[in-house]
Design a protein that fits this description.
- The chain is α+β, with helices and mostly antiparallel strands and 260 residues long.
- The protein is built from eight helices and five strands; from the N terminus they run ααββααβαββααα.
- 52% of the residues lie in helices and 14% in strands.
- Strands 2-1-5-4-3 form a five-stranded antiparallel β-sheet, sandwiched between helices.
- Helix 3 (79-91) runs antiparallel to helix 5 and helix 6 crosses helix 8 (236-245).
């Protein structure tokens, strides 16, 4: 079950729990993705909620990119953060955008004066009431999957301890997404394998049907099915199913194909 994020960013939670314990609980929660009813949307929002619960920030946003596509906003803790994030994506400039393309953390403090590096974004973020943003890339080895964006309204940079925690949250997010992706690929392979087994079973049933109906061996029966399918441009499994269902009747085999 998901572990609900705490409501305090201080060293101790409202129930006296230590910061370390709350960080540990959050990491366990975000690692719990190998479940049958995994909800990707809920997981991504939990990432941002844990950020605001554990770190000295006001809002968080998470952007991800499905290769080779562009960055997309997948979760935000407030409408203000969502608006700023979408503006950054539309403007193609800002710390989060830079962090994604450089695969390195970027921190920036906003002011009333537009930043030359990101003039439109810095002005927009400052008007939204934010004083700084810390963008941490979500990395999977050498690949950047997205960016975890942490917004502050209070003056000052993100504390070093919080930067380390943000890095841990970004890392566990990448690991969890990779595990879920691997599981989905495994499920796809399993589905393909099951489909192949089902097809094989219906072919075996058709072979058995023909050997029972005519005095032929299984190899001869299979040869007859394949020959008929090729001649009439039919899928082997479809023809086999029709033979078993009785909707298609193959002629008896020639005498030289029959067995005693």
């Amino acid at each position: 079950m998901p572990v609900p994020p705490s409501t305090s960013a201080g060293r101790d939670g409202p129930n006296g729990s230590s910061r370390e314990a709350r960080v540990f609980a959050a990491l366990i929660d975000l690692a719990d993705t190998l479940v049958a009813d995994f909800d990707a949307a809920a997981f991504l929002y939990r990432v941002t909620e844990h950020c605001t619960a554990l770190l000295d920030i006001d809002d968080a946003g998470l952007m991800l990119a499905a290769a080779p596509g562009p960055l997309r906003l997948v979760a935000a803790t407030s409408e203000a953060a969502r608006t700023v994030e979408l503006f950054e994506l539309d403007a193609s400039e800002g710390p989060c955008h830079t962090a994604f393309h450089t695969s390195t953390a970027v921190e920036h403090t906003f002011s009333a004066t537009a930043t030359p590096r990101w003039p439109r974004f810095s002005t927009h973020a400052h008007r939204a009431g934010y004083t700084s943003v810390h963008a941490t890339p979500v990395l999977r080895r050498s690949n950047t999957l997205g960016v975890l964006n942490l917004f502050r309204r209070a003056p000052g940079r993100l504390p070093i301890e919080d930067r380390d925690t943000a890095r841990a949250l970004a890392d566990i997010t990448a690991i969890s997404l990779l595990l879920q992706s691997t599981l989905e690929e495994h499920r796809t392979v399993q589905d393909q394998l099951q489909h192949a087994l089902n097809n094989r079973n219906i072919i075996e049933q058709a072979k058995g049907f023909l050997t029972a109906r005519h005095p032929t061996d299984p190899d001869t029966a299979f040869h007859r099915i394949r020959t008929h399918a090729r001649h009439h441009h039919l899928r082997l499994t479809d023809l086999s199913r029709d033979i078993v269902n009785g909707t298609v009747t193959l002629p008896p085999p020639p005498d030289d194909m029959a067995t005693a």
